[in-house]
Design a protein that fits this description.
Distance between the termini: 58 Å
Largest sheet: 5 strands, mixed
Number of strands: 7
Radius of gyration: 27 Å
Strand order of the largest sheet: 1-4-6-5-7
Strand content: 5-15%
Structural class: mainly alpha
Number of helices: 32
Shape: globular
Oligomer: single chain
C-alpha cells in the first residue's frame, strides 16, 4: 500500500497545486514544470533517489516460479485453460465493441449491441472467476483484474464515438478554454481539481486533451478499486485467492458513477479511496494474531496525508469534499480525544454536519428555506413484474432492491465484526479497539450525509435548476452516504469468498453461476437502458448534431445569433466552438428567476438551468411561435434565431410542420434526421424559404 498511497498523494498534490495556481494566477505548462522540479528536489532530499522497493522485494513480487512457463505437463495445461478462455473472450468483447462503435443518436449502449455481447461477457466472468481460483501467477491475476474492470467501466468509451453523456462536454469545453488562455472568468469555486489533473496529463505527457478527459475516471477507478478491495481483504486473510476474488466486487456492485469522467465521479472516487486507506489499518485483527500492524496517525495536523486527499477532493467537488472533512474530523476526535470532551465535540460535529450542506447552498445561492414534499427514499420493489425475460427480470430485481441488499450487507458486516470482537474477548485475546471505533465513524458519517440529503430535498429549492433536476444534489448525497458503508458491506463478501475457496467442487460451481449472473446484471444496469422496465430519454450527441451546428454557423455568416435546441445539439456546439466569444450578457426577467438579474448565457441552451432552454421548451411543447422567438432574440440582442428539432423528439412531426409555416427559412440535415428553422428579428410574415442542407 505504500506505493499506492504515494501515487494517490502525488495526484492529490497535482490537484492542489494546480487549483491554487488557477485561483492565484493562471494554470499553464510552467506551473506543472515547476511542480515536477520541486517534487523531484523534495524526493531527492528525502530519499536520495532510493528505489520505491528493493531488488529483493521485486524478486519476491515476481519470482522465478511465477514467470516460468512450464506448459508442457497435463496439470499446467488444465490450470491455464480458464485463463486462455478469459483472454479470448475479452479479446472478442473488445473487437465486438469496436465493430459496433457508433456516432448515431442512441439512448443506451445496449441499442447497438445484441445478446452476443452478454454471452461473451458471461463467459469472460465465469472463466475469470475460475482463473482467480486457480494456481496461475499473482501478476497474471492482477492483470486480469485490471483488464476486466477497465473493460466493464469503459464500455461507453468503446461504443460512443463522439462522447457519452452531456456534462462531460461542458467540462471538456472549459478545460480547452483554460488550456488556451490559462484561466476562465468568472473563476468557478469547484471543478478546478479535475481540470488541473486533466491538464497535467495533457501538457506533461502530450496526450490528447479530449481522450485524457474521457478516460480519466474509468481508468483510475479500474486501477484503484481492485487494489483497495484486495488490500482490505488481505487484512483478514493472507490467502491470495480470497483477496483477488474480493477485488471482483468492484464490478459486482453497480458502477454507474465510474463510467464517465465528471467532477462528481472523480471526487467520489477519491472519497472512496480516502475511506478505504483510512479504514484498512483499523480493520486489522488483534495484534496478538497479526504481530501488530501499522497505525494511522490521526493527529489533526495539516501535514497529515489524509487531509491532503480531503483538500484535493474539495477542489474537485465540495459535495464530496465536505463529507470527507467531516469524516476526518470525526475520526480525529473519536480516536485522539478522551473523556466527556470527545462525546461533546462528536455530538456538535454530528448536529452541525447534518445541516452543513443545506446551509452552504443557502449561503451560495442566497435562497430561502421552503418546504417541498418529494419522495425521499430510493425506489425499492421487492418483486418486479414478469416480462418473460429471465435475465432482465433478475437484473431489475437487483436494480430495484440494491439499497436493501447493500444496507443488508453493511449490517451483516457489523454483526460479523461484533461477533469477532466477542470471540476475541471470550478467548482472552487482545481485540483491536480501532475496529469498533472506525465502524462507528463510518456509520455516523454515512447517517450525517444522509440527513443532509433529506434536508436538502425537503427544504431547499434551486431557482437556477430546471424542475426535473431539483432532486439531483440530494440523490448524489445519498450515493455519497453509501460510500462510507463500503468497507462494512465488503466484510461479508470477504467471508463469502472464503467459503467458496474452502468449499468443494459443487460449492465452487454454484458460486461461479451466482457471481456470473450478478456481475452480468450489474454490467447491464450500470448503463442507461431502453427496455420493458425502463426507458432512458437522453440521446447521445451524434454526427448529425455536429453537422447541424456547423451548418448554422455557416448560414449565420458572422451575424449575432442564438440557437434553441436540445442538450445533444448543445453538446455538439460546446465541442465544436467552446466558450470563446460565445456568451451574451442579458437582463433576466422575473418570468424565469423571480427577480431581475444580469447574467451571461451561452448562445446554445444549457438544460440544467439556462434561460434559452426555457424558450426551447416553450417552442416545442407549446408552439414554435415567432413571438416566442422574438422575445428570445430581444433578450440577448441577437440578429436571428435558429430552432433545431431532432426527428426523435416527442411530437417532432407536428412541430416541424408548424415551424415550416411560421419560420423565415428551414433546412433539413442528415436526410431528415434534423430540421433547422430560422427566425428573424422582424418581418416574420415573409414567405418561407425551404432548402435542403444536404
Amino acid at each position: 500500500m505504500r506505493i499506492f498511497k504515494g501515487f494517490i498523494l502525488i495526484l492529490s498534490a497535482i490537484i492542489i497545486v494546480g487549483s491554487a495556481s488557477f485561483y492565484l494566477w493562471k494554470l499553464n505548462g510552467w506551473v506543472y514544470l515547476g511542480f515536477i522540479i520541486l517534487f523531484g528536489i523534495i524526493i531527492y532530499k528525502k530519499y536520495q533517489l532510493r528505489p520505491l522497493f528493493s531488488l529483493k522485494q521485486r524478486a519476491s513480487f515476481v519470482s522465478r516460479r511465477e514467470i516460468s512457463f512450464g506448459f508442457f505437463n497435463k496439470k499446467t495445461l488444465i490450470s491455464y485453460l480458464p485463463p486462455a478462455i478469459f483472454v479470448f473472450s475479452v479479446s472478442f468483447i473488445v473487437y465486438y465493441l469496436l465493430r459496433h462503435r457508433t456516432d448515431l443518436p442512441i439512448r443506451s449502449p445496449w441499442e447497438v449491441v445484441t445478446w452476443k455481447l452478454f454471452v461473451l461477457y458471461g463467459i469472460a466472468i465465469a472463466s475469470f472467476f475460475i482463473s482467480l481460483l486457480s494456481e496461475i501467477p499473482k501478476w497474471l491475476k492482477a492483470i486480469f483484474v485490471f483488464a476486466f474492470t477497465f473493460l466493464s467501466f469503459g464500455t461507453a468509451l468503446f461504443l460512443y464515438k463522439i462522447g457519452y453523456g452531456f456534462d462531460p462536454f461542458i467540462h471538456r469545453a472549459t478545460v480547452k478554454y483554460i488550456d488556451e488562455f490559462g484561466t476562465i472568468s468568472p473563476k468557478p469555486f469547484y471543478y478546478i481539481g479535475q481540470y488541473a489533473l486533466v491538464l497535467f496529463f495533457h501538457k506533461i505527457f502530450f496526450l490528447p486533451l479530449a481522450w485524457v478527459d474521457k478516460i480519466l475516471v474509468p481508468l483510475l477507478a479500474s486501477l484503484t478499486l481492485p487494489i483497495l478491495f484486495y488490500n482490505f481483504s488481505k487484512k483478514y486473510f493472507e490467502n491470495d485467492k480470497i483477496n483477488f476474488l474480493t477485488s471482483l466486487t468492484a464490478i459486482i456492485l453497480p458502477f454507474s458513477i465510474f463510467i464517465a469522467t465528471t467532477p462528481q465521479s472523480l471526487a467520489n472516487l477519491f472519497l472512496l479511496i480516502l475511506i478505504f486507506v483510512s479504514a484498512i489499518p483499523h480493520f486489522t485483527p488483534p495484534p496478538s494474531q497479526e504481530g501488530g500492524k501499522e497505525r494511522i496517525n490521526w493527529k489533526l495536523k495539516i501535514e497529515n496525508w489524509k487531509f491532503i486527499i480531503a483538500l484535493a477532493i474539495m477542489f474537485i467537488h465540495p459535495l464530496s469534499g465536505i463529507p470527507a472533512l467531516l469524516f476526518l474530523l470525526l475520526a480525529a476526535i473519536l480516536n485522539k480525544i478522551k473523556g466527556a470532551v470527545k462525546y461533546t465535540l462528536s455530538a456538535g460535529i454530528a448536529v452541525l454536519g447534518s445541516v452543513v450542506l443545506p446551509l452552504v447552498f443557502i449561503i451560495r445561492d442566497r435562497t430561502t428555506l421552503q418546504f417541498n414534499s418529494p419522495e425521499i427514499l430510493p425506489q425499492i420493489r421487492l418483486f418486479v413484474e414478469n416480462k418473460f425475460d429471465l435475465f432482465r427480470n433478475f437484473a431489475y430485481l437487483y436494480r430495484f432492491n440494491f439499497w436493501i441488499i447493500f444496507l443488508g450487507l453493511a449490517v451483516v458486516g457489523v454483526i460479523i465484526l461484533i461477533y469477532k470482537k466477542w470471540l476475541a474477548a471470550r478467548d482472552s485475546s487482545e481485540p483491536n479497539p480501532k475496529v469498533a471505533t472506525t465502524s462507528l465513524i463510518l456509520i455516523l458519517t454515512s447517517f450525517i450525509i444522509f440527513l443532509n440529503a433529506i434536508f436538502l430535498k425537503i427544504f431547499i429549492k434551486f431557482p437556477e435548476i430546471i424542475s426535473y433536476e431539483q432532486a439531483d444534489y440530494s440523490n448524489r448525497l445519498i450515493g455519497i452516504a453509501a460510500l462510507f458503508l463500503y468497507p462494512l458491506a465488503l466484510v461479508p463478501a470477504i467471508y463469502f469468498f472464503k467459503k467458496v475457496v474452502e468449499g468443494d467442487l459443487l460449492v465452487k460451481f454454484f458460486a461461479v453461476l451466482f457471481v456470473t449472473y450478478l456481475a452480468l446484471s450489474s454490467f447491464y444496469i450500470s448503463y442507461p437502458r431502453v427496455d420493458k422496465f425502463e426507458s432512458s430519454h437522453g440521446f447521445s450527441t451524434s454526427k448529425f448534431d455536429i453537422d447541424a451546428v456547423k451548418f448554422i454557423e455557416t448560414k449565420a455568416e458572422g451575424k449575432k445569433y442564438i440557437v434553441l435546441a436540445n442538450q445533444s445539439v448543445s453538446a455538439a456546439a460546446l465541442q465544436e466552438f467552446g466558450f470563446k466569444n460565445r456568451y451574451y450578457s442579458i437582463v433576466v426577467s422575473p418570468r424565469y428567476r423571480g427577480e431581475t438579474t444580469i447574467e451571461k448565457i451561452y448562445f446554445y441552451p444549457i438544460p440544467t438551468g439556462g434561460i434559452l432552454y426555457q424558450y426551447y421548451l416553450d417552442m416545442v411543447y407549446s408552439s414554435p411561435s415567432p413571438l416566442t422567438a422574438t422575445e428570445a432574440i430581444k433578450l440577448v440582442g441577437a440578429d436571428e434565431l435558429y430552432l433545431v428539432i431532432n426527428s426523435y423528439w416527442y411530437n417532432a412531426k407536428n412541430i416541424v410542420r408548424e415551424a415550416k409555416e411560421k419560420s423565415a427559412a428551414w433546412w433539413s440535415v442528415g436526410g431528415g434526421r434534423i430540421y433547422i428553422f430560422k427566425y428573424l428579428k422582424s418581418n416574420f410574415e415573409t414567405e418561407t424559404i425551404a432548402c435542403l442542407a444536404d
